[in-house]
Every structure is written in C-alpha cells, then in structure tokens.
Design a protein that fits this description.
There is one protein chain. The protein is of the alpha+beta class. It is built from two helices and six strands, in the order αβββαβββ. It has a five-stranded mixed barrel with strand order 1-2-3-5-4. The radius of gyration is 19 Å and the shape is globular.
C-alpha cells in the first residue's frame, strides 16, 4: 500500500520534472541583465514567430560599415498584448532599442524597449 507521504513526494517530483524544462527554456542567463545596450539602426528583417520574435538591425560600426545585430524579443502574444502590430516595425525602418547584450559581447541582444522612428518607446519583451 502506498502511503500518503510517498504519494505527495511522487506528485512533487512529477511537478518539478514538468516545470524545470519550461524554466530552463526561458532562462536569460546568456544576457547581461544588469545593463542596457543602446542601439540605433535600420531594420533588415522582422520575424513574428513563436516562441520568440526577432528583429535584425543593421547598426553603423566605427568605420561606418553596417553591423548586423540579432535582437530576441518575446512571443507573439506578449508583443501583441503590449500593443505592437506587425506594421509597427518593418524592414527599412530606422529604430532605436534598449536591450541586454549577450554575455560574450557578440552582436546579439534580448530586447527590452523599442522606439520606432517618430514614435514613443514601448516595451517589446
């Protein structure tokens, strides 16, 4: 006969096994969350896909050459709930962003805020 204590332990383990992959998937440990990187550039691509949206932003480097940054955002539902539509940021637009750069300092960021040209800054994540 299974005791109540053993049943509770089994349920707790099952819940942890179910929750841990979700928490690991949404970890932002690969980004420097303690500081923002500020970028301005021209949108090359926008991908409205799940589980994360992406903006590819061409930013002028020190020598004037274009450097492509990959900017990771929240999922479609999260972005839409913040009032964004697919028409708000499109290829060719000039935007500014505040984002959390990758810890290895490569050209990637976790989006925090986006300001469309002539618009107001809004949260994107």
């Amino acid at each position: 006969m299974i005791s109540l204590q053993n049943s509770l332990i089994a349920v707790a383990v099952a819940v942890l096994v179910w929750i841990l992959p979700v928490a690991a998937h949404h970890s932002h440990g690969n980004y420097v969350l303690e500081e923002y990187t500020h970028l301005e550039g021209t949108v090359r691509e926008v991908h409205w896909i799940n589980p994360h949206t992406w903006i590819y932003l061409e930013v002028a480097g020190e020598n004037g050459e274009g450097i492509l940054w990959a900017l990771e955002g929240g999922g479609i539902a999260a972005i839409s709930n913040r009032g964004w539509t697919r028409e708000d940021v499109v290829a060719g637009d000039t935007i500014t962003v505040r984002c959390h750069q990758l810890r290895d300092r490569s050209k990637g960021c976790l989006l925090g805020y986006v300001t469309p040209e002539g618009g107001e800054e809004k949260e994107w994540d």
